[in-house]
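Supplementary Methods, section 5.1.

A reviewer requested that the exact input to the structure prediction be made available. We therefore reproduce it here, unchanged from the version used in the analyses.
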Amino acid sequence: MEDIKRAPRGRWEKLGFWLLVFPVVPTLVLSDILEAVGLPFWVSLLVTGLFLGIGYYLLMKPLKAERADRLASDLESGIFDCAIRFPQSTPGSLRDLWEIGVGRLQATTLLFQTRVEDEQGSPAGPVKTFRNAVLTASSEAPAGTPFRWQRDWKHVHLQTSGGLPQVAASEQACAFLEAELGSGSGGTGASAHTRTPG
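The structure derived from this sequence is encoded token-by-token as follows.
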């Protein structure tokens, strides 16, 4: 099966990725420049930190806007960032751990593919297929999710022909899943789902 195709990341997201992965490079360059003009080490370090902080702050606004547009475009095609696990599996097993990647909903079939957190979010494994998906419960927060940058994610529990996965995703993606896979609805809405405490 072909990889799940996503909208490509834009220039601001790519720039943000490289600055977050390699912040030491601009830090050293700016620090060396400031020391070369005669500023003491601690002053140059403080000024460097200030400039980097302002730079990241200015970068975040266009980066977040660009990322939001990309994710919205993907979601229109049923594609969304997510993580899955199987909470009824043996504690500590691989199936019990969160696997992060991208999902795609096609009718009542959920496709999932692990992704690498590189510049483009490259695929890192085969596409897994979960057919006949029905939402059984949803919650405000995916308790136990180890990914700090996804604190605002919610989670849903699904019943599928491939098991009972727990899916963590953004509020928008979970709302999409709830609307399409409402409990027993087969895609007619989310009004029948039951909520569980987070």
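The longest strand covers residues 99-106. These observations are discussed further in the main text.
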